[in-house]
Automatic annotation (TrEMBL):
Protein name, per record: Lipoprotein
High-level lineage: Bacteria, Bacillati, Cyanobacteriota, Cyanophyceae, Neosynechococcales
Species the sequence originates in: Neosynechococcus sphagnicola sy1
Amino acid sequence: MGLSNHRQSMRSNNFIMVAFIACVLLMTGCSGKSSSELKALNPYAQATLTPGTGLGDLQLGKTTLGWFVQNIGSGTISVIAGDETAIELSFLNGEVSFLFVISSSCQNETDAPGKRLDLGQDIKSFLSRYPGCNDLPLSSLSVATQQSSQADTFFKGSTDRGVRLWSPKSDAYQHGAELNHAGQLVAGEDQQRENLGRLEFPVGIYLYYSEGEGATPEEVQSGAPLSPERIREIEASAREAAKNAVIKRMTIFMPNR
């Protein structure tokens, strides 16, 4: 498999995602780390992540965007456009992300179907202008580590099968036999800072593991062939990562949404 195809395997071939980032002006800038939001998220740091269901009382298909913004916050806002359009709210530099797929009724209410959703800088103002969008249900949520150690990682809970961030890749198979379905639009994939492989398991969970250095975004976008020396560097990095591959991101979603 070519390097560009390998990188694309991280995402669905059915989605070409373009994220339009609108940073909310928080007390600490655009990092999504306001003290009130951290306080609201803290109860979930040790919660159980259940595939296809949720994280603690944050329930897929039930928790609404309006409730979430009112009770948790808005973090850093992204609008992700592809075969579907979604609002993603991310916190802690992408360690925790929540995705709300835009319904046709919400998009029609904004009077901009098929166009970029105009959230501006204030999602509360957006929801006030378009109250029907308050009812968008939580479609996916993702927890990850962007840190160099488990101790510094925000989420220290586990899945319902006991898999944690920083667990060995082999622990992922506590969730059963690996699936090979077409990818879905899920939370967190635009927040990744390193090259990760992805495993899918039944009921709605992706587990991502370290794969080594990989080609840089610039190398992928250029489309130019990599030099033999660069290919050897990437292959050596992948072999080293495979020796001690660990889980770096865990994402749940509603299958067959």
